[in-house]
């Protein structure tokens, strides 16, 4: 049985049901079109299941896993979504503040078929009940560009 570390316990901050919005706002969205439910798996992992409507109005689903690998001193995980065929593998670090988890990945260059680019999904806790996920891509010659930012509001 693996030992549950402080880093594993940090993942508990994500546990709960969250209303999700892609609009910057001061409070939870009035009309919820996407939700995420996060649960623990044995104290070592979290499983984040998202469901809702895509920007085009079609239904979408996503599954994210995040854990911590003490041997590598890195957060690890994966992400899949009903809107694409790529399986994203995460490798990341928690910033010293304890409020920002930067998950690095590599994936397809959506503008140049057959090419791959570095990506980051950055989870930032604004407070215990509000967090963001910012998706970034490192484009050649342009540097890191924001693809999207979504806000998560814990349901009470």
Q: How would you explain this protein's 3D organization?
A:
It comes from Mycoplana azooxidifex. This is DUF1579 domain-containing protein. With 156 residues, this protein is mainly β. It is built from 1 helix and 10 strands. It has one helix spanning 6-10; strands at residues 16-21, 34-41, 45-53, 59-69, 74-81, 88-94, 100-108, 116-127, 130-139, 143-154. It is globular, with a radius of gyration of 16 Å. The model has no long low-confidence stretch (mean pLDDT 95).
Secondary structure: elements and pairs:
Blueprint: H1 6-10, E1 16-21, E2 34-41, E3 45-53, E4 59-69, E5 74-81, E6 88-94, E7 100-108, E8 116-127, E9 130-139, E10 143-154
Antiparallel strand pairs: 1-2, 1-10, 2-3, 3-4, 4-5, 5-6, 6-7, 7-8, 8-9, 9-10
How many DSSP-defined strands? 10
CATH class: Mainly Beta
Taken together, the total number of domains comes to 1
Task: Give the N-terminus to C-terminus distance in angstroms.
Answer: 33 Å
Give the count of helical stretches: 1
Protein name: DUF1579 domain-containing protein
InterPro entries: DUF1579
Task: Give a nutshell description of this structure.
The chain is mainly β. 3% of the residues lie in helices and 59% in strands.
Distinctive features:
156 residues, mainly beta, Lipocalin, 10-stranded antiparallel β-barrel, 1 helix, 10 strands, 3% helix
